[in-house]
Amino acid sequence: MMSGISKRINKIQFALLSPEEIRKMSQVKVITADTYDDDGYPPIERGLMDLHMGVIEPGLKCATCYGRVDECPGHFGHIELAMPVIHVGFVKEIKTILESTCKVCGRIKLTDDEIKIYREEMSNLNFAQGDPPEVIAIKSKKITDLASSRMVCPHCGAQQSKLILDKPTTFREEKVGIKVTPKEIRERLERVPDEDLIFFGLNPEVARPEWMVLTVLPVPPINVRPSITLETGERSEDDLTHKLVDIIRISQRLRESRDNGSPQLIIEDLWDLLQFHVTTYFDNQTAGIPPARHRSGRPLKTLVQRLKGGKEGRFRSNLSGKRVNFSARTVISPPEPFLSINEVGVPERAARELTVPLVVNAFNIDYVRELVKRGPEPVDEQGRYVTGVNYIISQTAGG
Q1: pTM (2 decimals)?
Q2: Where are the domains of the chain?
């Protein structure tokens, strides 16, 4: 371990990925929904299993870092969406910002005096000074409630209209009932100046509101969504890969329809379908829309389901609960009267699996030779299990 590296965490900052950052961290622009060729090998270039995003097959090398399966950490790709779509995880934040800002000039609907007072109050709130996030959220809500109640912009005098959210991601203006498209929403969010973002609890250096409307979608590394080979020899792709295939195909159809001058109704239907696929890619249990399903009828397990999926989810299974080899557990059982106070009983089945690494050296080599002679399941004259050797790792074999 290198000396001089501090283990103290200075701060944790939450941010949004901008389209430029997504493209910058990406190693390949994915343009085809195909994965492998007709023979099942090799992966198609610029497809969803492109070798630039990592490898899962023994013997192959990553086209980005040239590492093999156990060496390559995996790399992101990206998909350029034909039209913007709303990120379902930020719908509430988008609605708050749209209602609190002018649809013409983009300024927050507060007077100059109110802005001066509230900016000072928000600037004084600081995580580093011990203010909990709840205090900042409550203050921000008070400000946005005041701003959203105004139906005339104090800055440009434009008349405002109330927004209605038809869950999960459809916005429309209340009086005229006209649908507000994700493209129009993104343009409105782009007009919000950096200096007004403090009232929404956003840092403009790392989180612009228009980034909540997606134009570029990150494609996760292959080792996050590995394919498996069935007994029949056919490949079975991961649920995330299935959703990404749908997103690419619909995005291509939407782009072609838009470029060929198709009727607006067809374009809107394809746009809604793209929004559906991106929404269910993030969360396949979103209220208000049917879940995306496998051909067998099973609902797909997408990103949110992976994280919170009960005992098998990412948090409970992989982060909170670690699994290690050669360990066992038991319920609290009745005491064994023949055990000493400093002894513990181990079932024979577990004892035969439990191993303790023992490094051979000049001092213990005779003892180790005796253990090796006993073999993996030795018993004494009374038929009781005694210590033996399960396996040997030789230095020449890389052990």
Answers
A1: 0.78
A2: 88-208, 348-397
